[in-house]
Amino acid sequence: MLVTESRPRNLRWVHAGPLLYGDWGTSRLYVLGLAFLYTGHASILYLAAIGLLMIAVSWAYTIVCRCFPDGGGVYTAARQLSPTLSVIGSTLLLSGYIMTAAISAIEAFHYFGASEHLVLPLAIGSIVLIGGVNWLGAQSAGRFALIIAFAALGVSGVMALLSIPQFLAGVKTVSFTYFRETPPSQAWVNFTKICLALAGVEAVANMTGLMKQPVEREAKRTIWPVSAEVVGLNLWFGLALAGLGFIVAGTPLRELHTPDDIRLTESRAALIEAMPAEHADRFDPTRSIVLTDEELGLMGEPTLTERYLALREHESQVNEYTNASMRVIAREAATDAFGVEIGKVFGAIAGITFGLLLLSATNTAVMAMVSVLFAMAQDRELPHGFSKLNYSGVPWVGLIVAVIIPIAVILVEHDVTVLASLYVLGVCGAITVTVLSTAFNKELDIRPWQRALMWALGVFLAAITTTIGVTQPISTAFSGTLVAIALGSRTIMRKRRAPKELEAPTTGWLSILRDVKIEIDPDKPKIMLAARGRYQSEYAVDLAKRRGATLFAIYVRPIRVMDVGPGKLPGIEADEAGQEALGSTALLAKEAGVPYIPIYVTSTTIADEILDYTVTYGCDTLIMGKSHRSVFSRKLEGDVVAQVQASLPEGVTLITRSAETPHASIPTGADRGMKE
Question: For residues 133 and 5, is the Cβ–Cβ distance under 8 A?
């Protein structure tokens, strides 16, 4: 018999909330500026509409979390209806995560105030560094995310107080003129452009497999405070942005009656019209125009140069409030309250804080991609290589892919407005599939009125997704290409898959483990072995034999993915290293006549599991191996031996020994407190 255990449910709402905020709350850092860019002083009305939609989606995800307490989200919800639909939904989500990682990395360095020519290389370097940290399975990244989330909340609170005058000025600027001058179809299209504010809500469904019971209560306590903060402060800072005195092309934002998207398009069109015909054909008024000094000289008109420089200055000012709107609000509000110097300092503090929050979101997106790829590989929708774990429990193939793709995206395009257009279809598509799949599934315990509202919301989200697909071909091409690749790979794999062979008799280490008879004599001493290697096993078996003790051996398989879905945790059947470690010890124990209990655990925390099982079974001795990991790795991830030693209760002796130390038979009466 083999003792196995799954992950503990130890995630409380007080921890899940900041994690959700770190993902969902970051959309504010670029949505506010984009909303004002497209709609000017009507942006607050758009933000209010988006706020209502976010509240509705929040409610829907409380239902999703309740229905899928072992890990939900688009992959699980859709897979109960159709494996093909689950691949489509998860690939849409994957495209959203790719763009989240890309846009968050770029925006982080805009908030840090990096020079424009340094933003791209710094963003690429940060993604590579994040990948390296996660390769080591560093849980410190999760603790960092919590600290930064709380810091961002604190800075946002101070900003809200300082920006009261700008908020009041923004209230006076609210105008319905935009809707009288803009056709309803265009107004609807502009609404769909800022629906990326929904990005991040899927994260809460991916946490339910770790939440404490009852999941429904923990999910509600996680979702509603974050939803209230995001919606409330989006409206507050949206009004504050509209009420700023920040000058753009000679006009303060509070006096700007025509959206900058329209102003820039008109200015570019006028400049293109004034160019010689041989140059004009190269440019599009909807995209930035970049000319070299040589090209300007060839055009020959001084006024053209002046207009071009004025346009570039206009674009630079627009980029400042679209790329780092919260930094601009912080600086301008503090400047109005305390003067220019204090304004610069507070703006820098806000920029650094929100920049770190964006890097945290990049980290979350990278690991979310790894989770999606891992789950699909577990279900054989992707090649098996995506499910292989490295020493730290990280699916290493998926991690490499999750790092390379966002880098490739920003190498091709790093303009925030373009990245946002790539982003929105995947986000809305994945949420739409989740909501409609949950509403359609009659096996789920959902009240009739709740199901009806889920259907209504799903249809509305489907209309948004369809509009995006029709009006933003670049987004459709990006997400559609990923879906086509995923479905094509799936088809090829299924055609090449060999027919299932008859089940062979169990052999090897696993058969030895399954034959182990669990016999625990309460009167005998108990020893826990938490080390690997033949010498360690020989030492532990010899010690247990001489003391007449029962030997326990624990193998903790760390797994560092956000969620793998219900029933998808890797077991010992697929873990050759775990089989060998526990099986070889079983063989030695059997030969020595030592009672033996093997324990296999899949968990995110090695030290906690070792401590838990050592105490639970009343072991008086714990044998551990000395770490072979690098100093850097131990500093980043933490030294497991040190963590165990710091929390080991009195009465339990810790023995550490090197795996390279050959075992010599222990003399009778050897000191139990020895340390080899």
Answer: no
Strand ranges, E, within 131-282: 247-248, 251-252
Q: In sequence order, what DSSP letters do the residues of 193-230 get, joined into one string? A: HTGGGGTTTHHHHTTGGGBPSSHHHHHHHHHHHHHHHH
pLDDT for 505 equals 32
- Tokens read off for 563: 């969620």
Strand partners, 653: 621
Count of CB atoms situated within 10 Å of the CB of 215:
23
Helix, strand, or coil (residue 423): helix
Is the CB of residue 299 less than 8 Å from the CB of residue 6? no
Beta bridge partners, 502, equal none
Task: Decide if 231 contacts 43 (C-beta within 8 A).
Answer: no
Of the chain, the percentage scoring pLDDT greater than 90 comes to 29
Rounded Cα–Cα distance for residues 206 and 75 (Å): 10
Q: In order of start, what are the domains of the chain with their CATH numbers?
A: 3-260+321-493 (1.20.1740.10), 261-319 (no CATH), 509-657 (3.40.50.620)
The dihedrals phi and psi of 372, each to the nearest 5 degrees, come to -65, -45
Closest CA to 223 of 66, 372, 107: 66
User: In angstroms, what CA-CA distances link 501 with 360, 443, 510?
Assistant: 46, 33, 19
Tell me which DSSP letter residue 665 carries: P
Q: Which 3 state secondary structure label does DSSP give 555? A: strand
Query: Are the C-beta atoms of residues 332 and 170 closer than 8 Å to each other?
Result: no
Higher per-residue pLDDT: 286 or 560: 286
> What pLDDT was estimated at residue 306?
84
